[in-house]
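Backbone Fold Data
Goal — C-alpha cells
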Amino acid sequence: MPAAPIIDTHLHLIDQGALNYPWLAEAGSLNRSFLYNEYARQAHRAGIGAALHMEVDVAPSDIEAETAFIKGLSRQDGSLIRGAISSCRPESQDFAAFLERQSGNHFIKGFRRVLHVMPDELSESGLFRDNLRRLTGTGLTFDLCVLPRQMERAIALVDLAPEVQFILDHCGVPDIKGEDFDGWSKNLAEIARRPNVVAKISGVVAYADADSWSVATLEPYVHHVISSFGFDRLVWGSDWPVCTLGGGLATWVAATHALLSGCSDSEKARLFSENARRIWKL
C-alpha cells in the first residue's frame, strides 16, 4: 500500500515584494524571496500533499496582511496550502481585539509568537499570560519556538493554559552542532509530560553542522523526542526554506524516512499526516 502524502506543518514562504521582514537583513542566504512555486515543485517530488504556512515574523504592521496573502495563494488551483499559523503579539494590549478579528477566519489554525530570539522575560508578563489563556476554548493552537534554556518558561506557559493545544517547534531547538544533548534532553522530557503539548519533528538539520551531519547525527535527538512524546503527539514540518541551510527539502524528507526506518506503517502515518489532520481539522 502506498504511503499517504505528508502534511507539512511548518512551511515558510517569503515574498519580499509583498511583505516586510525586518530580520532578513541579517539572515545571510535566507535574505531573498522563497516563493510558493519553488516550494511546491520540491514538495510534490518529496511526497508532500498538503501544508500549513507558518508565520515568518513579518513586521507587526504586516501580520494580518501576511495571512491574507497566504490565503490568496491557497486559492490557486492545486495549491498545497490548507491553512496558516498566524503571528501574534500576546504582550500587546491590542491582542484581545486582534483575536476577535481572527475568530471568524477558519483559514487560521493557530498562532505563534517567536520567543527564541526575544528577551526571556517577554513571556513572563501578566498580560502575555492572560492573553495566552484567551485561546482556551477557541480550538486554536499555539506554537512554542524556544531555546533549551527557555524550556522552563515554556513549561510555565503550558501549565497556565492546560486546555490550549501547544506545539513545540523544531524538537525544542537542540544545539546539535554543539553536541549539548544532556542540556536539552532533560527539559524536553519534562515538557513531554504535559498532555497538551505536541512535538514537531522539524528544523533539526539547521542546528547540525551543515558540512558533516548525517542521519546518525540526528538520530539521538529525534529518537528522544519520539520516545518522550509517543506517536500520537508528533507532527512533521519541513521548516522550508530554513532547511536549505542543512541540505534542503528533499534531503530532510529522506533523512526523516531513514530515522523512521524501524517504525510501523501506523506510526509513520500518525507522525506524517494523521495527527496533523486531527489537531488542525484538515
